[in-house]
Amino acid sequence: MIQRKFLKNSHDLVLILRMMTLAILGIVFLSGCQPSWKIENPYSTVDWKNHGQYKANLHTHTMVSDGWMNPHTVVEKYREKGYQILAISDHNAVTYPWEEFSGFKAGGSIFKRIEEKKLKPQEEEMILPEDLEFKNVNPSDVGMLAIQANELSSHHHTGSYFNDHNGTKTEIESLEAVAGKGGLNVVSPGSLPWNQS
């Protein structure tokens, strides 16, 4: 009697058993089909005695966008730390060439920090008026390689290198514009809108 409420006939029982069997087989099959990852060192065959190694930073900001230091001070701080390659990648600004730093101006957030008398991170001083006077730097004079860069930020942040593109509003426009100028885009997969949850 009880069986008849849940199962109208033995056909239903066979159907349920088949579905359970397929589900179990599917789980067993899928667990055995997980991709195997093999991480290889791309430099394993490099003879480092015959190749140079360089200390580089390809993502840093200055007062031109939301950084706390002017461009020439950023360069000097990295030079003091032994960096040989530096890309200033201000948000939506190509702070390049270094020999023309004096033509750049501080971004809006800097003036708010000055007004609110905020202390510089890791320092016990505020931004001073003389910090807003940007000075030109010749990369060869400081023994560094200057990389032209920009962090395109009107959309999900994308690194743009070796070109002067700026100002597009969508990821696709930016990718196409940078490629059109022979530049290099660096995109973090997690930052793309189709990877957002």
Question: Can you characterise this structure?
Answer:
28% of the residues lie in helices and 13% in strands. It is of the alpha/beta class and 197 residues long. The protein has 2 domains: 2-32; 56-195, no CATH class. It has a 5-stranded mixed sheet with strand order 1-2-3-4-5, with helices on one face. A hairpin with a 5-residue loop joins strand 3 and strand 4 (158-161).
Write the topology of this structure:
Layout lengths: L1 H5 L3 H23 L23 E5 L10 H10 L4 E4 L19 H8 L29 E8 L5 E4 L9 H10 L3 E4 L10
Parallel strand pairs: 1-2, 2-3
Antiparallel strand pairs: 3-4, 4-5
- Give me the side-by-side strand order of the main sheet: 1-2-3-4-5
Count of distinct structural domains: 2
Mean pLDDT: 85
Work out the radius of gyration: 28 Å
Structural class: alpha/beta
Number of strands: 5
Please tell me what the overall shape is.
elongated
Separate helix tally: 5
Name the beta content range: 5-15%
